[in-house]
Amino acid sequence: MDINEQIMREMGVHGKLWNAMHEGYFSDSVIARPLITKIVQYLSDSDTDVLVDLGGGTGFVLLELISQGAAQNMVPVNLDCSAVQLEAMEKKGISCINGLISDFRRNNLAAPDKRIFFIMRSVLHYFGRDGLNPVLRHIRNQARAGEMFIHQTACFENAVEAQCINLLYKEMGTRKWYPTISELRGCMADTNWQVIDIAPAPPLKLSSVELGRRYGLDAQTFTKICDRLTGEFGEMENVFRRTPDGFVAYLHYRICVAMAA
């Protein structure tokens, strides 16, 4: 399943509905605060001309930065492959580009003499295990040495936790894949990104009910998935556990601050 197929499969929860998904995680200012704070920290010391949110969805992160005055004197750009997400966005001076992260070119974003600051939230897993290095390398190839890339990405402390969640997403019929923290560090280094800092962000609680709505799966399917995961991994607090109506799982996030080497 390629990126376009994945996006089409989830189209039913795009647009205005997206902000309410997963208990409003992606539209909550308090939950986003660690990411916003980290971006502001590095953005304020930069000579950024263009601030680009790769896979910015409904524009929430950019709007938060604009509301805090952190995006003054620069052009905010939301690059997303879902036209529905972009149409639902409050524009407020944000330029929208409907395109794939794996295909964009620097000259689509800025004039040759402009400096770009790249941000991203919860997107890298869409590219799967085999696609992670290629997309990180592509972003690096569009950046110039010294430019920043701050992304919030789901990754896990240990391999067993990652294997559990990766099996869940495989059983749901997606190609999404989540690394360990050390694997993410390795991928960043392999693609010529210098990791400056990795900091925690709030975990995302996923209920089987919402996952069913998002991926078009019924309760019977989730019962089979739950049986397989608990049979193989048991229940892990704050990773995967049964509930009376299915299960809950958690994605653990880290904010990765990197500079183009």
Distance between the termini: 32 Å
Low-confidence stretches: none
Q: Give the biggest beta sheet.
A: 8 strands, mixed
The H/E string reads: HHHEHEHEHEHEHHEHHEE
Number of helices: 11
Percent range for helical residues? 25-40%
Please state the overall shape, judged from the principal axes of the Cα atoms: globular
Total number of beta strands: 8
Mean pLDDT: 91
Q: What does the radius of gyration come to?
A: 18 Å
Proportion in β-strands: 15-25%
By secondary-structure content and strand pairing, the structural class works out as alpha/beta
Give me the secondary-structure topology.
Elements: H1 3-9, H2 21-24, H3 29-43, E1 50-54, H4 60-67, E2 75-80, H5 83-87, E3 95-98, H6 106-109, E4 116-121, H7 128-142, E5 148-154, H8 159-171, H9 181-190, E6 193-207, H10 208-215, H11 219-233, E7 240-243, E8 246-260
Parallel strand pairs: 1-2, 1-4, 2-3, 4-5
Antiparallel strand pairs: 5-8, 6-8, 7-8
Descriptors for this entry?
eight-stranded mixed sheet, 11 helices, single chain, 40% helix
Would you summarize the structure shown here?
It contains 11 helices and 8 strands.
Q: How would you characterize the overall build of this protein?
A:
By secondary structure, the chain is α/β, with parallel strands linked by helices. 40% of the residues lie in helices and 24% in strands. β7 and β8 form a beta hairpin. It starts with a helix and ends with a strand.
